[in-house]
Here is the input.
Amino acid sequence: MIIFSTPIIGQLETIMRHVLDWFHGTLNLPWAWAIVATTVVVRIILVPLTVKQIHSMQNLQRYAPQMKEIQKKYKADKQKQNEELMKFYRENQINPAASCLPMLVQIPVFIALYYSLRQFAKHPPGGDLSFLHFIPSIAAHTTTHWGGYILLVIYVASQMASTLYMSATADKTQRILFMIMPLFFVFVIARFPAGLVLYWMTTNLWTVGQGLITRRLIPKTPVPELPKRSSRAAPKEQPEEPPAPAAEPERQPKQPAPPRKVRRKKRAGRR
Here is the structure.
């Protein structure tokens, strides 16, 4: 392919070779562990992007019910649906692409390491190219030795585990698809050098550890509940009743008047 013959690829390969030479020559690390150290350094550099990725995933999870309502409302008009979703993203400061930034940044590293390992296979450098004594050479194809199959099993397990943490906002169907993809992708990556699988396995294990830490440190964003809609028509509003008159103060019973004394007149002539 044309992209593989561009000077940019050569520059990336040169930078990667200098990094591996520094870990191997200065820190006296074997070449396999130099790849692991390079992976850790790359993931540390990507921490700010990873934080943005976590916040983006939380926002997507937080506003997922509202976005589903927009998709249902404009189901027949895809163009209008995309316009409304982009408007919703701007209003709520959501960046859907932020969740893909760490992986996109790692693609140049992946390509540079691939070409560096190809040069290792053509012109073996001095030092040990094995990994933990069960992979003879990290520059050879992964399936050339039985240890490569163990590496592939660890890769698939770590890829599934990392996908489990990074696809928390996806629906059930998408999560199942993401979990199955490594099983098909393993047939492609098995033809790569073992050092490349080692790099990807290390970054997956980093993602799993990062997911465990963030789940403890960053609280899970609650998902807002949408009001339930009833199929029945809403009852008509009843006119407001006038306020009841204030109760009259209770009257105290009147005390009975004292009986009047009648004076009798004296009869005349009584002696």
In short: Residues 2-217 form one domain. Confidence is low (pLDDT under 50) at residues 226-235. The CA atoms of residues 132 and 163 lie 26 Å apart.
